[in-house]
Structures
1.
Amino acid sequence: MNNSIKISPSILSADFSKLGSEVVALEKAGADYIHIDVMDGHFVPNLTIGPEVIKKLRPLTKKTFDVHLMISPVDNFIKDFAKAGADIITFHPEATKNTSKTINLIKKENKKVGISLKPNSKINLIENYLSEIDLVLIMSVEPGFGGQKFIPEVLEKTKLLKDLIRQKKLKVDIEIDGGINFENCNLAKKAGANILVSGSTIFKENNGDLKRNIEILRKN
Ligand code: DX5
Ligand code: ZN
């Protein structure tokens, strides 16, 4: 099994009428992380869940809660998501006036820090922060909705980022998020991503066989 690759299923594609059992099912199916998409209807044109839901999900699993904040302003909510049980808190630099301040707010809560780049956002937006963070989330769709088509142009950016991390001798994970399926997951890995987020592929392919779909993404 390819141990270096982690699979982080996005619960945005789960059945929201039974999120608790869906999270438990993902753990049983071999998910490494649980990707939780938080949207505020302001930073992105969609509205999902907040800290209260995460608080209710927390006791159901020990799996890492990989929380993707598509909200702005973001600083006022860092503490709430940390207290609710987030393990990794990823934000968009466009959602804060001071990226360093937001990074430090997350670190103060002893959580891992992720920064997310939208498909058109350049690496230079985050280059100076690489030594302070744990993860870069490369969006391969415009943030806001599951089930969109993978944007292959982000693979070049992923390769550049991987080289930069290597040059700087840093230990920063590269997570790719959006439209990942059985055909493009290998391209994402080859480009340098070591964490794959997937919602619709994991929940919909093979009649929703979570275990099988997670395994295929990990192995392909
Ligand atoms: C989109 C979210 C993604 C999305 C992934 O804004 O950040 O995590 O839910 O879902 P799929 O895999 O269906 O593109
Ligand atoms: Zn996401």
2.
Amino acid sequence: MKKKTILITGANGEIGHTLLEVLSSQGHSVVAIDLNPMSDVHEALCEEVILGNILDEDVIRSAEKYDVDEIYHLAALLSTSAERNPEQGHRVNVEGTLNFLQLAYRMGKRTKNSVKFLFPSTIAVYGIPSLADKLDIGKVSEDDCLMPMTMYGVNKLYNEHLGRYYSELYKRLSPELETGFIDFRGVRFPGLISAFTVPTGGTSDFAPEMIHKAAQHQPYNCFVRADSQIPFMAMPDGVRALMELAAAPSDSLTRRIYNIGAFAPTALEFSHLVQAAFPNAVINFVPDEKRQGIIDSWPSDVDDSAARQDWGWFPEYDLKRTFDEYLLPNITNRYA
Ligand code: AKB
């Protein structure tokens, strides 16, 4: 496999850690950007760690010296955080993405290569007006219900369009390159569950928080109702999805943004599995009105047939395997 130079923004986050570990184990050279210092273990896997804000020109200048093949633009303010400070959410999520699309363009032009831009979009781009509609609609397809109710969802949906705009516009400006200077591709992630990190600032966080608390013998007040249902995925599948989409031949892709699914338990079903693994776990359902509203506006599941058909997407972890082979051994070990 050709050794690639890969830039990851938000490399110190949940997805970033696993992605960095996998890419460096494959021999690629990774340049990482994050607001916060990485652990020594993760820093050792990087060619360089650029510390700072994705809105800061010095940070972008530091990254620009590399001839990058792929950018994984993970840095973002998640749904609950962005709802608490919408203007900051917009700055980080939209202006930050614009900065890196422009950087990708300049890099592509300089190297006369197409820079692949991998974008983690989200089920937050969907907005379903009522619970009755949510039950009625079931699995959503990529082009349905695109009426997001959070700043984060609005930002991510707009970014999907920005990515398409930059890819298509610059394809017209650089006809010598079949894919243009930017080859933008994205997946709409469901809630991700990692055995190694607890997310912050998201609204799907109730599931990972529930199991991490139980493993630490701490009670947990789940901030959504027991019947709440959205899709989830184990982190290794999420990272593999991004990498497989990056590797897919351009002519097999019929769209730039794909749904990907794995399993979709209710919060109650999830709590039963946690309780079966940790019989002393204390889990209460204490819904928070605002966060519940966000979850109720997201679909109960997604139709990912386009990803399955175009680039062979298939989740390796169903709910049972996620618990038995990924979460329980690793989490138990982590808090032992
Ligand atoms: C969030 O809850 O904001 C994220 C997401 C579903 O995109 N985890």
3.
Amino acid sequence: MIIITRKGVTDEELDHIRERVETLGLRTHVSRGEHRTVIGCVGDEERLRTIPLLSIPGVEAVHTVLKPYKLASREFVAGQGSRIRLGSCDVGGEELAVIAGPCSVEGLDMLRETGHRVRSAGAKALRGGAFKPRTSPYSFRGMGEEGLEILARVREETGLPVVTEVMDTRQVDLVASYADVLQVGARNMQNFALLSEVGRIRRPVLLKRGMSATVKDLLLAAEYVMSQGNPNVILCERGIRTFETATRNTFDLAAIPVLKQETHLPVVADPSHAGGRRDLVAPLSYAAVAAGADGLLVEVHPDPETATSDGDQSLDFGEFEGLMSGLKAFAAAAGRTLNPLAAASVSG
Ligand code: PEP
Ligand code: MN
């Protein structure tokens, strides 16, 4: 249930409304908009119906949220969508948040070089897996903590925040002690223990859509994180499994505008895993931006041919710079900005 307060509601009135709701055993989440403040109430709604909510000073209206996801639903915040701070950029704001880097951290030199190159091309954050979910147990499974140390070092040198995957509840504190954003991968999107664990901390979570998950499943996974107290969830469309075999996954473009309607959370797209081929990264990126994505997650490697994972879909530096410069027109058409510094350095 959401309580919409009247214009100019005072802090005392807000506190009083929350107190009335919380004494009934429900939890409250306040969202302040430019004109209105909304109080989201989660818990047993039947109990709320036992009190005359409209008679509490400051309350203007009360709505029932019919969607199964409450905190993630669009109605739950007043005004525009949520913005999540990522270094110098707000994911969900006007500027497109491009997160780029290798699939796996393979060493200091390659990550350092990648960090500098993607930053000067306009990326806002550096990605790189230290703990890798691999289909085969015999494939390279990441550098582990050493990889996290490398990420932190490159962050210091480049100023770029780092995004890396956490695969296991036992690793959450360790990964959070190094990373700016915790990635929950497609294979773990419904690992409810892990979702609850990353909900316990405040660090932003990049939640990737499971390969067989519906939009509703994805939003309910976000709800798990948020219901533990962490509102900082960025959703990621990365392609789903279908009967089509021409691409690694099927990029569900429509999920982007659908998610933007359903939720206030920022939505980014991962054209690398969606297509699984480097030649598809640019067209899928342009389409994602045109469809309303707030950012992109792109795999970039100094020498894709030698990558320990996902080389086929990784861009080299020149290709990434080309992507960033091609994106300019699509960003502008979608009413977005792309780091102007980046545009200058790419053409220079
Ligand atoms: C990745 O980002 O490298 C990754 C493993 O992604 P996904 O979980 O979407 O497969
Ligand atoms: Mn990958």
4.
Amino acid sequence: MRPYVTVNFAMSADGKISTKERRQLKISGKADFTRVDQLKSGSDAIMVGIGTVIADDPSLTIKSEELKQARASRGLDENPIRVVVDSRGRIPVDAAVLCKGPGKRVIGCAETIDPATHRTLKLHATVIIAGREEVDLKGLLSQLYNMGVRTLMVEGGGTLLWSMFELGLVDEMYQYIGNIVLGGRDAPTPADGEGFSSTDPFVRMDLLEWVRIDEGVLLHWRIKSPSQPG
Ligand code: NAP
């Protein structure tokens, strides 16, 4: 069993989720920021890859006081469980996701993590070991489910999202398209990694809704299952 997975990201009009230097930037606006905060607060857990932690140092906390209170009144922690996918435990112990705001943290690591690093990380988070060289995402999601996580929001980046799609672990996707062009052949996209070949079964989706927000558009997709041959 695994949690229901919702992917959320913002990209430029030319399909990039950050600049060629992999620097975070503002792609959407205030209204979309509020939507994302709501999506977060309705999730049991929120997950990112270590590349995103190193590039952006996000805290992954809920920002709105009303949403924090609404969670408290439902008997929930102020923040969803924050999960980082990090095979070798590269996360700095002063990363915002480990230091800012109350709540549980999980670091998903692989068996090849250095034992001393493992011991250090256990002081800051629950460490789940899944997979040998890199994190076995199916195994990690199954362990999150066993911890009570039923809804998981995944924010990126492109390497993690690719693996999630490749493994058929995504159920829904919110894609915000902003009114900027970033360019750059090496700038990250929503699904990087190896990519499918023309003979592979692609991930296919149903468009559930689209709506103008701020200066861009939000697309809401449901992933079709099983995927059809390309
Ligand atoms: P990422 O996807 O955040 O993290 C990827 C890393 O996770 C891998 O390099 C790997 O590092 C680790 N990992 C472990 N097991 C994995 C598995 N099974 N599959 C995939 N990854 C696994 O990093 P990224 O691709 O470099 O993306 C970061 C960029 O995305 C940044 O520029 C950030 O600004 C951008 N971003 C944008 C948005 C947006 O909405 N616009 C949202 C999030 C991020 P190890 O081998 O060391 O474990």
